[in-house]
Amino acid sequence: MKIMEVQERTPMLIEQLLAVWEDSVRATHLFLSDEEISSIKPYVPQAIEGVARLYMATGQPVAFMGTENGSLEMLFIASAERGKGLGKQLLERAERDEKVERVTVNEQNPQAIGFYEHMGFSVYKRTDLDEQGNLY
Questions:
Q1: Whole-angstrom Cα Rg for the chain
Q2: Residues 16, 18, 22, CA angle at the centre, nearest 5°?
């Protein structure tokens, strides 16, 4: 599958990416309750619209990432598409084109930690709270 930069972030595309986000989070963020996912969800469209660069797998949106200032701000893959190399393709594109060298990962998400370590990343700092002040 090809990776493309999103040029226009239409409301319909944002809704499709929001569905990918929720499906991905429910499959990987097992430390979040349904209530926590529901409370985060209203902020996701703003986050998608706010990243400097947005990339996605071509065709029907099944995976996307956002980058900004050398950081991978988000990477989500629909659960049915996991394990097919999309995460690797997206991350390699981010490293090549956006010079991404940092990513933030919840330590309660061992699948993500394993993926990023496999891709050559290592822990350089740890914080007790995430960017929103939560304990994960």
A1: 14
A2: 120
Check if the beta carbon of residue 25 is closer than 8 Å to that of residue 37: yes
pTM to 2 decimal places = 0.90
Q: How many helices (H) and strands (E) does the chain have?
A: 5, 5
Alpha helices in the chain (DSSP H): 11-28, 34-40, 44-50, 86-98, 110-118
CA distances from 125 to 11, 89, 104, 107, 128 (A): 36, 25, 10, 11, 10
DSSP letter (8 states) at residue 25: H
Pairing between β-strand 3-5 and β-strand 53-57 as defined by DSSP bridges: antiparallel
**pLDDT tens track for 46-103:** 999 999 999 998 888 999 999 999 999 999 999 999 999 999 999 999 999 999 999 9
Which tokens go with 82?
């996991």
Q: For residue 66, what are its two tokens?
A: 């956002």
68 sits in which H/E element:
strand 63-68
Continuous segment of H or E residues that includes residue 19 = helix 11-28
On whether the CB atoms of residues 45 and 18 are closer than 8 A, the answer is: yes
